[in-house]
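User: For a teaching handout, I'd like to show students what a predicted protein-ligand complex looks like in token form. I'll give you the sequence and the SMILES for zinc ion. Please answer with just the structure.
Assistant: Understood, here is the input followed by the structure.
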Amino acid sequence: MTKKKSDILVELAKRRGIFWPSYEIYGGVKGLLTLGNVGFEIKRRLENLWIKYFVYSRNFQIIESPVIGPRPVYVASGHESQFTDKALKCGKCGSVFRADHLLAEIGVNVPEGASTEHIDELVTRNMVKCPNCGENLSKAFQWLLMFKTEIGVGDLGYLRPETAQGIFTEFRRLYVHGRSSLPLGIAQVGKVFRNEISPRQGPIRLREFTIMEVEFFFDPDTNTGPSEERYLEETIPILTAEDQEKGISEPRKVKVGEAIKENIFSNNWIPFFLVLTKSFLEALWIPDGAYRFREKLPNERAHYAKQLFDCEVFLDSWGWTEVAGFAYRTDYDLSGHMRVSGEDMSVFVSSTNKKIVPHVVEPSFGAERLLYALLEYGLRIEEDGRTYLSIPPYLSPFDVSVFPLLSKPEFIAKAKEVAAILDCFKLNFDDSGSIGRRYARADEIGIPFAVTIDHQTFSDNTVTLRFRDTKEQKRISITSLPLELSRLLSPSKPIV
Ligand SMILES: [Zn+2]
């Protein structure tokens, strides 16, 4: 049997320091991941590229707010009452199960927004028992997905399930910093926490992960979308809720301008961010056809969303997998905070002479899932067993390897000289073992280029520059290396 791509990747990730399950010496905790030296760097570069696309290219602000929040924040946001899974508990052995998963195992589909009563009915009708001991299960109850904590002594707090509330709660100050005008984009990249009952999808379903999101505030009365109109000409693969209700499961490729005329989007900022996302996925080398934008059905939407599109990438083991969401949150959050805090979050729009509570569109990306998708699509296994990661040079864990051909003192000294010239790059300097093995190790973690100091270097001051994907080598003078590498490593730019 041929090994699955995901199994090969997970094995490679452990072996080469990309990522692995945390706390293995204590038996491991599901849904927690440690990134090694290689994974850390690829993820950090992925985050930087996202910031370039979604923050700098639009002149948005980026902030960092606390991970811990006091309870009223999550009362106002609706998470305390709504951010739950339905669970069932065994009366005898005490095991707790996610109701929809348990029912799915016996072939019963639970609609995403199903009530606890509906689940009780399905459990009774299908005579579902505890899979561990065969006893009866409790009535369905709400399982809160937020981690509880205590702030100081006795004050209940939560670990944030999204970075968004750290933006909404600071909105008044951020609005002033944004010259008191709309639209206004505020981004944040940081860890979030979701206490899943029993995550079962390895590196895909995490209890702690990094989110990269923008809260984009706009006036719903002057909702014209961005002034540049280039995004209207772009084509995106889209699967609408209406199409899904008709039984269609394949996305359509539509020109954004046409889709807007069809009233597919609740506002023009959503399609703009979808186009920007298409451009970002292309920069990650996720191929055309491997991603789609699926509108969530009304019963699948998060409690705060009036319209929600997911960006899904097709993964070998998990099928279509959400890597980003685009929610139209309306004024839900700011109004919630006005109600609970008693503070005014409205702004005055001079062009219309009106006081409004801004509306929000939120593009939100999961960094670890994107990292995983990037690696899975980059993984190449050739017939002779050669394995390499074909990932974009600007996302690789090192910019370039520097290798002396032989482990002799004069070769090592010359290689160190070359390394000094290249000190503005992140270098993988390796002088041990055969050159073939060193190339193979570098290829496996996706280092795009290798510079090798060989016999000829001593006579004409040239080195070989080797390319990871093709294994081609060309000779280049040491003095032209920095410029050539800068050119090869320059990141791609957003198309809108
Ligand atoms: Zn039991």
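For the handout, you might add this sentence: Residues 90, 92-93, 95, 130, 132-133, 135 surround zinc ion (CB under 6 Å).
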